[in-house]
């Protein structure tokens, strides 16, 4: 679905851009540069799509651990129970390593993409709501589509890390609850598992500069509104 969305979106955008420039008699170099600028977004958008897929896979891995822990709660505390806890503890280490690999693989592209989408939202909002009306309908639709796409991309980047942390927090709470009800040696193993889950609590970052989560969306909205007001005031003073 994600690949189909990328193909359809860029094909439609290339068609709209080509139609606009051809109908306005734009020079061929301008048309080529515009198409190249559209197609150059394929790489970062594909990277974001892969980031979303791996993030959801990691959250499902935490969910699987949580389900197995719930099953173990209702089983007798024998050797099989103890071995299953060890297996889940090792599985949790692999999931934590996956989060580290996500940060290493996608950290740079996430940081650059967030910066790009943030600036794009500021400029697109100004062109949509800060300029005078009366422009061509096709151009307005292109600007609106671009504005909406930037918002969707930011949501795609920010919400998967929240899902990972939600599942990881549920696993940690379940382990804390389990160790209260257990006896030795299962209690010590569950306690070590809980300490591991707390110490290696997952966090997706932009190359470790800042954490990526839904909490930055209100900050982006507030900063966008601030820059929109500044640009609007500057534009109004230029007209006067």
TrEMBL record:
TM annotation in the entry: 5-22, 28-53, 108-129, 141-159
Organism of provenance: Daphnia magna
Keywords of this entry: Cell membrane, Membrane, Receptor, Transmembrane, Transmembrane helix
Domain of life, source organism: Eukaryota
Main location: membrane
Membrane topology listed for this record: Multi-pass membrane protein
Compartment list: Cell membrane
Protein name: Gustatory receptor
């Amino acid at each position: 679905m994600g690949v189909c969305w990328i193909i359809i979106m860029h094909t439609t955008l290339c068609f709209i851009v080509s139609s606009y420039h051809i109908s306005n008699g734009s020079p061929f170099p301008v048309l080529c540069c515009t198409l190249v600028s559209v197609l150059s977004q394929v790489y970062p958008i594909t990277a974001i799509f892969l980031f979303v897929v791996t993030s959801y896979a990691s959250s499902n891995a935490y969910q699987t651990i949580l389900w197995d822990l719930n099953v173990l709660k209702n089983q007798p505390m024998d050797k099989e129970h103890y071995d299953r806890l060890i297996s889940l503890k090792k599985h949790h280490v692999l999931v934590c390593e996956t989060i580290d690999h996500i940060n290493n693989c996608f950290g740079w592209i996430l940081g650059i993409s967030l910066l790009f989408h943030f600036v794009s939202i500021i400029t697109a909002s100004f062109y949509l709501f800060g300029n005078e009306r009366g422009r061509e309908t096709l151009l307005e639709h292109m600007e609106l589509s671009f504005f909406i796409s930037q918002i969707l991309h930011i949501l795609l980047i920010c919400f998967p890390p929240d899902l990972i942390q939600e599942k990881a927090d549920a696993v940690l709470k379940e382990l804390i609850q389990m160790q209260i009800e257990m006896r030795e040696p299962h209690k010590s193993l569950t306690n070590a598992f809980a300490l591991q889950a707390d110490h290696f609590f997952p966090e997706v970052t932009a190359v470790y500069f800042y954490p990526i989560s839904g909490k930055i969306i209100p900050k982006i909205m507030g900063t966008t509104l601030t820059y929109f007001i500044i640009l609007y005031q500057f534009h109004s003073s230029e007209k006067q």
